[in-house]
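Consider the following input, taken from an annotated entry for Phosphopentomutase (Lactococcus allomyrinae).
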Amino acid sequence: MSKKFGRVHVIVMDSAGIGEAPDANRFFNQKTPDTGSNTIGHISEKVGLEVPNFQKLGLGNITPLKTVAPTDSPKGYTTKLQEVSEGKDTMTGHWEIMGLDITNPFPVYPEGYPEELLVKIEEFSGRKVIREANKPYSGTAVIEDFGPRQMETGELIIYTSADPVLQIAAHEDVIPVDELMKICEYVRSITLVGSQWMVGRIIARPYVGTAGHFERTANRRDFALAPFGKTVLNYLDEAGFPVISVGKIHDIYDGQGINKDMGHNLNDMDGVDRMLKAMTLPDFNEGLLFVNLVDFDAKYGHRRNPEGYRDAIQDLDGRLPEIMEAMREDDLLMITADHGNDPTFVGTDHTREYIPLVTFSKSFKTPKPLPIGHFADISATIAENFGVQKGEIGESFLDELV
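Applying the prediction step yields:
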């Protein structure tokens, strides 16, 4: 079959959910169910949201938003998508977007990591682990609380969250980045599927500064488990199509199915710059460009900062004309999310929400709203467009895009 679109560009606004999922009552933030969460909706309602370009594309047509009006003539097809998998974390959301159904949630460690695991890390690294930090912790709070001690002792700050992650924070002047990465690689090797302690992601969290003025750096790296099965990324790669990643996409899929990586973002606007650079690559005439913008989640959702989250959405909105101008006539842009993280909600965890889907192509004639679907419909549509196998789940909406 002939392709409807030559290139597909997918942007994940990490955590930008758009209203509680039907099963939100089964997922919790500090013992409070996620019922009532609405990341974009509450930002719009409580601190205002001015996104003229998203509005023209039809963001306000997906669901009522207080400060983003619907439009009678949207430039893009829009809808919201529901998660099938058991989880509300980064890996579950991204893996499902590319066609996997995660039926067993990743284990979490609400009481911190077992002593036996900490001892193994100490034996490998030659450094002690600060036991008091070994629990669910805010990433900024944990370095404020234990950063001064680490600078004196050289111990490791190991902590977790409500997500399936083991995070190791280290001051770059005390534990060099290369050493931290080697430690994280070791921890990854002993926490794989089938191990005594399976962990979804090992995250290196370098920081700099002095007490009271610590700041995490862009040298973060995620060491994720490999996907539990083949995704549409694999099928595209095997068929010879370019599959280009920007931001932490490469880490989330452990590089599986990705044949060119544009590197990690310094921040979300740097991620947009890397995306625009990828769009001009001379050998990128067809295939997939897959982008993650993580600041929405890491800097504003988890820190419960609705004003910062609003500003980040507005910053991306300001770059949309540049992105659309760089698109070819037969390019397709899909902007979505991977879960929610309502900055006005209780706790600091992700929230179980629908995700938005906003699309654009210069070839669109009269776009309209799409039916409510599921995360994996994105990859099913990509798969049908390029004539490759789809994932375990997902239904294509390619025929609707005219």
